Structure to design on (811 residues):
């Protein structure tokens, strides 16, 4: 999948169908072929140039019971938020 | 406290207007990210794992209740209702939007605060002893000079593109609470035989991946020459500091490379030329700034409010513990300095929510002339509390969950945000702090262990000061897994030292038991009155290695 | 395309930049590298036309301190905007060596830095900008107050407070 930060608010977003960027990893596009990776990274770079996102890159995910989960801890934290007690829930 | 005059206000509002235009140019595409990044960093705006992070300066850790309310307002309006106080006595907001930052900076300016130079290769927020002007052991109040340096370093035309960041700290007490030996410039204030104040100047201290204890470059500097001497140090650094390798760009590297004696010569040559320039601190300006730090209107109190206090302490063990750990001696009889611990179970070290910020501001107004300090150990301080009101204050703090009696103890943990927030981190820090806090909940045990600093960093950049914790923990990444490297024997005070590596890095689950083993070893070996650090320095690392890794220590320590 | 700003206004480039091996063009004003200056000092001072030296960011002005009376321009190179050595070099040229000729900022010069550059002694700038005059004026108007003395002799906030 391709992950980036949205320019205006910095939030983590994933590239989805039709060049849209979505906040939930479950709604992003899982890219299976190498050729498609190259093509979609180019799409992402265009979104950088047009000021939609910052710093897009590819991440590895696994799919379990239909749900996506990044392989790396760092990416998992980006996708699902800090692992520490959520301060917004009091 | 220092209050802005028309010039201070004008400079900040001009700076904010400039940044607003820069943000507009970024959002409309005139600037790309490469061009914008250095501009936003000079205003303390980072792009982290989840969002933008804004780091707001708290100059030398001094806040008014009005400023704290403004921070609460910002947390509530533009963030997720909280902020984190940092080891630079600053506060970070973790969830801000780029498009909101010009408005945030404007709101901060209303309360005489900025985010200018809280990042970037420039002089960062000036830090100082959090008890400045109040501590009983203090010789000279460093706040006046901290403020002179704050102004001097703000938007400096020559030193805004240094080889690397540059940190300055001051203390006026023999007991160093500001870690001055771990700064690019550390200033220790002394009195000479005539009773006049002056500075011992240290240079080239720092943490990061190459930790170094600062060296004395000048034994005695008259206050009027402070700015010219700092300018000479900065100019030599700006021209000679390494720019070929970001990891070798701090002043500590060039000082070590040239040697302190050669560096001193270069500085002295330059200083000779500029010491009588317009940088000389004028008596009028010194008087003007000093007037801002006049003592608050203290009540003439009996030095001995103590009979009643002793009675309350005897009746209420929790209050007694709190007085023993969180309350410090004040230079004015009948008053105390009170520490508010931001190390609470279930909350990241240094975190405070907006409602609590407002509540602390209220308590500061009621009990402490409206003044609050931020400590480099990520706690808060009320500077001027009447001893006869301590009990009442303690009860109010207890209701807020801010009366943890652990200042200076094992659970008063410094922790960087780590991999939960920070894009530089290799491992999480906050969960490790939480594990340790959950492991050591027995207050009597903590009191028995006594003074012990435990500092956690999530990467080599050492924002969590792990090198100088009595126990230091460094998060590392090994093939995608988090591990934690322990060090022992670090200290950041007047006897500053760097920790020694204990042995192989541990898995997160192993850390609390390892800390337990270290603590038990200390308790079994300590002699009368010894702090953990004293025992460690006396017995060395071996017994601790054996306790953590089992025997033989050498084989385990791969 | 770079535009030269001198004394706050776009100005025609009257100097020719000369590489290490280039012939010296007769009668024209030239800017040479430090190496060329050292190699050809006598010819450069005796010929018709003004001469300037361009210093890289690792070439401090003390290397030409004895030569400044011959130089109409000292151009200080910013190889990247982050490399701030030339701020100190400009200041030393003005304050330590009393240089009164043109100090020119060349290389990676950002609009945001012009205000600082003016305050440490630069008076000419090579800018990439579609409207350099306007951009220069905006950059200069960003700030009307400062805490540090600069070589421009304008009063600091501290001095103004005690007028």
């Amino acid at each position: 999948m391709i992950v980036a930060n949205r320019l205006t608010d910095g939030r983590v977003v994933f590239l989805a169908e039709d060049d849209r960027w979505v906040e939930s990893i479950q709604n992003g596009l899982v890219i299976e072929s190498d050729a498609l990776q190259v093509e979609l990274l180019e799409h992402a770079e265009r979104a950088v140039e047009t000021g939609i996102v910052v710093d897009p890159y590819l991440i590895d995910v696994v799919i379990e019971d239909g749900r996506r989960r990044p392989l790396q801890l760092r990416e998992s934290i980006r996708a699902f938020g800090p692992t520490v007690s959520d301060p917004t829930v009091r | 406290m220092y209050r802005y005059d028309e010039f201070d206000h004008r400079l900040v509002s001009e700076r904010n207007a400039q940044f607003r235009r820069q943000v507009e140019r970024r959002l409309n595409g005139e600037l790309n990210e490469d061009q914008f990044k250095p501009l936003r960093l000079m205003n303390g705006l980072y792009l982290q794992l989840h969002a933008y992070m804004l780091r707001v300066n708290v100059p030398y850790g001094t806040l008014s209740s009005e400023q704290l309310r403004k921070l609460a307002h910002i947390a509530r309006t533009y963030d997720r209702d909280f902020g984190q106080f940092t080891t630079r006595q600053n506060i970070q907001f973790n969830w801000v939007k780029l498009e909101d930052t010009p408005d945030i900076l404007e709101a901060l300016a209303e309360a005489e605060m900025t985010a200018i130079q809280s990042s970037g290769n420039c002089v960062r927020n000036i830090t100082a002893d959090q008890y400045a002007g109040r501590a009983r052991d203090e010789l000279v109040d460093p706040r006046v000079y901290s403020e002179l340096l704050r102004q001097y370093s703000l938007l400096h035309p020559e030193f805004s593109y240094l080889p690397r960041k540059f940190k300055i700290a001051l203390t006026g007490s023999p007991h160093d609470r500001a870690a001055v030996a771990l700064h690019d410039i550390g200033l220790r204030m002394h009195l000479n035989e005539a009773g006049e104040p002056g500075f011992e100047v240290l240079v080239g201290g720092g943490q990061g991946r190459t930790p170094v204890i600062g060296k004395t470059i000048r034994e005695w500097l008259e206050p009027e020459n402070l700015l010219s001497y700092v300018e000479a140090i900065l100019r030599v650094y700006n021209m000679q500091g390494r720019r070929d390798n970001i990891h070798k760009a701090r002043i500590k590297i060039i000082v070590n490379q040239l040697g302190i004696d050669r560096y001193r010569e270069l500085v002295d040559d330059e200083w000779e030329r500029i010491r009588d320039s317009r940088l000389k601190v004028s008596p009028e300006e010194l008087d003007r700034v000093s007037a801002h730090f006049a003592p608050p209107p203290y009540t003439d109190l009996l030095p001995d409010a103590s009979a009643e206090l002793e009675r309350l302490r005897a009746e209420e063990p929790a209050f007694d513990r709190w007085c023993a750990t969180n309350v410090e001696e004040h230079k004015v009889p009948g008053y105390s300095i009170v520490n508010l611990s931001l190390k609470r179970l279930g909350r990241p070290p240094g975190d405070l929510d907006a409602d609590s910020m407002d509540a602390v501001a209220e308590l500061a107004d009621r009990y402490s002339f409206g003044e609050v300090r931020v400590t480099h150990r990520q706690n808060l301080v009320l500077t001027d509390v009447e001893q006869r009101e301590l009990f009442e204050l303690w009860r109010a703090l207890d209701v807020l969950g801010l009366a943890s009696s652990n200042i200076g103890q094992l659970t008063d943990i410094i922790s960087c945000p780590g991999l939960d927030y920070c894009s530089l981190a290799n491992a999480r820090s906050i969960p490790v702090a939480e594990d340790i806090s959950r492991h050591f909940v027995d207050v009597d045990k903590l009191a028995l262990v006594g003074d012990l600093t435990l500092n956690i960093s999530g990467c080599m950049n050492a924002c969590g000061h792990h090198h100088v914790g009595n126990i230091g923990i460094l998060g590392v990444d090994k093939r995608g897994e988090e591990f934690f490297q322990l060090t022992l024997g670090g200290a950041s005070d007047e006897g500053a030292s760097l920790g020694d590596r204990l042995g192989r890095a541990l898995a997160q689950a192993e850390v609390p038991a390892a800390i337990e083993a270290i603590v038990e070893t200390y308790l079994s070996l300590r002699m009368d009155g010894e702090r953990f650090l004293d025992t460690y320095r006396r017995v060395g690392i071996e017994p601790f290695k054996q306790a953590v890794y089992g025997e033989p220590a050498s084989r385990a320590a791969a | 395309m770079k535009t030269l700003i001198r004394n706050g206004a776009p100005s025609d480039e009257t100097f020719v930049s000369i590489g290490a091996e280039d012939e010296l063009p007769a009668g024209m004003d030239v800017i040479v590298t430090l190496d060329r200056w050292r190699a050809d000092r006598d010819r450069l001072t005796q010929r018709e036309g003004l001469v300037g030296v361009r210093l890289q960011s690792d070439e401090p002005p003390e290397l030409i301190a004895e030569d400044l009376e011959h130089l109409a321009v000292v151009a200080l190179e910013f190889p990247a905007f982050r490399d701030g050595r030339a701020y100190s070099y400009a200041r030393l040229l003005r304050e330590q060596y009393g240089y009164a000729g043109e100090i020119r900022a060349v290389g990676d010069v950002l609009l945001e830095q012009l205000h600082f550059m003016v305050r440490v002694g630069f008076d000419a700038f090579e800018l990439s900008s579609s409207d350099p005059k306007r951009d220069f004026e905006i950059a200069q108007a960003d700030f009307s107050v400062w805490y540090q003395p600069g070589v421009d002799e304008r009063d600091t906030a501290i001095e103004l407070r005690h007028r």
